[in-house]
Amino acid sequence: MTKSKLFGKVKRLLFLLVPQQWRLNLLQWNIKTRYKSPPLVFPWKGVAMKKVLAILPEEPVEAFHQINNYMRISALFKNAAFTIFCTQEVGPYFQQVHPQATFIEYDRRARGLFSGGFDAWGNEFNKEEFDVCLLLERCPDVSLLYLAGKTAAPVRAGYYGAGDYPFINMHVKPSPKRPYRAEQNALMAHVFGAPDRIKMNWSVSKETIEEIKHMTRELNIVPSSRIAIVDAGLFFADFGPEWTQHLCDVLKATKGYACCMYIEGEPADALSEFVSNMQFPVFSNLTASRCAALIVRSACIISGKSVLFELSNVLQKPVIGVFEKDILSRYCQQSVSTKGIAYSALPDKATIHGIVGLVSAMDGAEKT
Length: 368
Description:
- The chain is built from 17 helices and twelve strands.
- The chain is an alpha/beta fold and about 375 residues long.
- Helix content is about 45%, strand content about 15%.
């Protein structure tokens, strides 16, 4: 074990022995005295920003809800060099929308306040002299808070309740009038004075589309079929095998559609056994680019609170989201291509009939 790793372990152990409020006080004192992180000063230089650091949410779904906010801010500071700090799960998707940025990806499992990697990145970020640090995580781990504070950027923006000064010196408070999470997040862009509308560029290469076409041929899917993708991994975990199977069987019987299953990552044993018994075509463990190409190739996506739903929404492809009633308005902004269906306790057969009705209605709207 190296001296730096040993020192980091000792610091973590000593830190855990201190009461929680004392821990924050110690970190705040360190940021103020050692890193000289300043308060927000007006007027600030705005469009003259040269370096921007964005710390993305760790959950991929929450990160997707920051795409519009982030792209609007990047359009405002169009001459600035952007660095994106994110988990390995989030990075591949943001690379599609802002390939010009510098990406630093970390393993969420290895994230820690005094871990060697985070200590090194914090010190490096301090040397970079960023003009703006965007902490886009709503409920950040203390290690991310500390990282934002260590940048000592003149503007360290975050959300109300995410952390106090000196970690953050500019707090954005979401409006209850905006229930949709992405719109709430975009208030940060509004505070900065960013443009209200931006063009989202997410291109799917011809090569990747050809790869998906090749996969469909291997799965014996007729080329002319209208593919309906069911987020089987999500539904199996949330609603159980019986409901998931019934949904797939009903969609299979729907005229003109080829029902296929989608699984994010490698399926666990129970899910793998379920899928093999179902005998439906399965797409699993796809890269971000292949997932996008599959969505483009498909006629309809049925999902929920997932990356598949969010990516379909970004690509403006027909997608139906199944959400608990209390969170429907937060995660689903309904439009011509995006529809949501709510359930109270657990979805039932009536929910499935509602899904099929939406599939038919969206299909009719697309043809007109």
